[in-house]
Amino acid sequence: MRAASATRNAPAPGRRRARQQRRRRARRRTAFGIGLLCSLTVLGVTAFMVLGDKDGTGSGGPTAQARPIPPLSSSSTAAQKAPESPTPTPTPTPSPTPSPSAVTEKGKGTFTIATASGSAVGKGTVRRYRVEVEDGIGIDPQAAARQVQAILSDKRSWTADGKNGFKLVSDGVYDFTVKVASPDTVDRICGSAGLDTKGEVNCDVGKQVVVNSKRWLTGSPQFSGTLDDYRALIVNHEVGHRIGHGHEGCPGKGKPAPAMMQQIYGLNGCVSNAWPYTAEGVYISGPSVP
């Protein structure tokens, strides 16, 4: 009886194969579902990494998020940081050079004498001078006088020779005057002595050092120094004529140009220089030229 019962309860071969096939199909559906879920998860994460945070509140930009970054050690973190820009060193801002269009070509023809005065500087023959500025050219007479005084008082100027001195005066007896005038007026004053300044350059006539306001205000395209240095060159050059110096040429390529060189016409290999002497009292000379 047991044998008969076991026979009746045993599944037929057909039914057994059907159940096995159903189990295999169920397992395949489960595996497919899990795989699909994993794929969707990966796609979602990738989309987030590529597109980034649409509302801009994320901690990094899209590019940074698109690149997986492995954990970094403290030393490598320091290496990955962008270098900080160094704090710029403050540098003085030079005063802008007025354009030639700011130059008044023709002043009023009258002059204002600067009221500034000062003590004598240098040894030997002391020459008294005053400063005058033509009216209507936009240059302050007092400021011009103080600058001329500072130039002639500088240890690199003509007092370094130990034979010449200067004293700024505003009245009384004077040996010469420094006149700052418009190009038209300079041409007229210098032309009276037979000099052709062409509205461009300065001259020394009689008791007058005549400074072209165009050069005073704009410097020279040949001179690479500051405008203040070029003003020093004007004064040193013309006053140099007054105390007996003639024109000099370039002493050699790369050397400083003498103050008595006509640097506005070209440097011939020399370097721009405004002063007749070095700070150590050495005269900056060149070959004599007409």
Name the helix and strand elements from N-terminus to C-terminus, one letter apiece: HHHHEEEHEEHEEHH
* Helix content, binned percent: 25-40%
User: Which outline best applies?
Assistant: elongated
In the CATH scheme, what's the topology name of the domain at 100-244?
Answer: Collagenase (Catalytic Domain)
Oligomeric state as shown = single chain
Descriptive account of the structure:
The chain is an alpha/beta fold and 290 residues long. Among the domains are: 16-65; 100-244, Collagenase (Catalytic Domain) (3-Layer(aba) Sandwich). 36% of the residues lie in helices and 12% in strands. It is built from eight helices and seven strands; from the N terminus they run H-H-H-H-E-E-E-H-E-E-H-E-E-H-H. The protein has helices at residues 2-9, 13-51, 62-66, 74-80, 141-153, 183-191, 213-218, 227-242, and strands at residues 111-113, 121-122, 125-134, 164-168, 176-181, 203-205, 208-212. Strands 1, 2, 3, 4, 5, 6 and 7 form a seven-stranded mixed sheet that branches. Helix 5 (141-153) links the parallel strand 3 and strand 4. The longest helix is centred in the N-terminal third of the chain and has 39 residues, at 13-51. The radius of gyration is 45 Å and the shape is elongated. The N and C termini lie far apart (150 Å).
